[in-house]
Design brief:
6-stranded mixed sheet, 21 helices, 11 strands
Amino acid sequence: VAVLEGGDALPRVQALAAQLKLQAVRWSGRRLPENTADCEMLARLWERDALLRGAMLWVPHEDAGAAASPAAAEDAARLADFIDRLQGLVLVSGAPLALRRARWPLAAAGGDGSSRLQTWRLHLGPRGTAMNGALTPLAEQFELPAATIAQVAHDWQHSAQPSAATLWQATRSAARRNLDGLAERLDARATWADLVLPEATLLALRTMAAQLRQRHRVLHDWGFAQRSARGLGLGALFAGGSGTGKTMAAEVLANELQLDLLRIDLAALVSKYIGETEKNLSRVFAAAEASGAILLFDEADALFGKRSEVRDSHDRYANLEVSYLLQRIESWRGLAILTSNMRQAIDSAFLRRLRFIVNFPFPDDAARAQIWQRAFPAAAPQEGLDMAKLARLSLSGGHIRNVALNAAFLAADEARAIGMRHLRMAAEAEFAKIEKPLPAADVRDWL
């Protein structure tokens, strides 16, 4: 028995029936036979009918005054006893019933975007109308129950600066969910100016941002979602070596769209126990759908790879885990980003199911010079820095930022401006960390 808690039950029943590919049959339960044998016969007839039709039973128990009337209380007890007899899926909404069988509560997530939009308009009144369309993306992006929408709307209207931007931020905060260690929320501060990437890569990233902004218009207003529910998810693979800007690019998208960025370590999600990986992934997607966040699956190589031949049950279930993740990405309405250091190791059959594949190449000399220039804040004191000489070092952007930061600490400890000597010392430490010798020819004229 699944108990629908709060909210409008009808759209949630319809959504669940569509997801399970079952027919939902509504029954008030007010015409139960008084004879026990007749109730047993009715239960068996329903079970046979449900099996043949592929159906589930929805019982909207709307008699909230059952405790006040002895007759109503007796009817509720008979209804609960009848539901306890049934095999198969039963949905119950409305007033609670004293059921003996196991129950799974399904809290309201706010219905669909249209019902959430109506709730926002109801609680914001003229202020909502004056926001000139800003409520539609808000209702689509964040799945809030009606009670939370009412609270956010009340607090926002009584805030010091009630604007569309502050309402978005308040809703974003209210929609956040606890992921119990399955994901890390990143503080996305990077902007487009921080990215040093080829034009083709930047164009792909800006296209992704545009598609996220215009999802409601294209899919719903223009009717693309009515043709098919498949392939509407925005899945992307960011492929490139370590430190080439994959995570920073995800931060830029999150900052641009003012959405939370959740980084998921797939290595931590993958379980040796059959079925546990899918459960972990399901929890992540459920929380992300409610909060409207962008998902960043770091080190996707932990789960992806060349699809193995099925030699035993572990091979078979490993392939099922990948298929489950891609299926969720395809049907999800948000953005899910997979990062990989080895694109060639990922099966082409998996790549075809992703909307974007964005390559992050290793920076050349000109790109490295730009990264070095942006690695030092304006307030950081500098003395005699030669960007052309620094660019000779074959380092990715992530390593360049490490060298710049470590050199700054060395200079600060000496109470001096950051100079080439500090950068050479920091570069030696960075190359030792990655177990490579510092090229003497590249740094010979740094001092």
